[in-house]
Amino acid sequence: MLGNAMLFLIIAIIAGVLGFSGIAGVASTIAQILFVLFLILFVVSLFTGRRR
């Protein structure tokens, strides 16, 4: 999931440099949503993970 967020971030940066503002905006929004979702799932997995 973090890989997908990074992919959309790279797409947003490239689209922004090339002047495609609509595509850059959508890609950056998707990247932000995926990153926040990754962080939430990571924190949840830290608390509910296996304990010895």
Automatic annotation (TrEMBL):
<keyword id="KW-1133">Transmembrane helix</keyword>
<keyword id="KW-0472">Membrane</keyword>
<keyword id="KW-0812">Transmembrane</keyword>
<feature type="transmembrane region" description="Helical">
    <location>
        <begin position="7"/>
        <end position="24"/>
    </location>
</feature>
<dbReference type="InterPro" id="IPR009760">
    <property type="entry name" value="DUF1328"/>
</dbReference>
<keyword id="KW-1003">Cell membrane</keyword>
<protein>
    <recommendedName>
        <fullName>UPF0391 membrane protein CZ787_07640</fullName>
    </recommendedName>
</protein>
<dbReference type="GO" id="GO:0005886">
    <property type="term" value="C:plasma membrane"/>
</dbReference>
<comment type="similarity">
    <text>Belongs to the UPF0391 family.</text>
</comment>
<feature type="transmembrane region" description="Helical">
    <location>
        <begin position="30"/>
        <end position="49"/>
    </location>
</feature>
<dbReference type="Pfam" id="PF07043">
    <property type="entry name" value="DUF1328"/>
</dbReference>
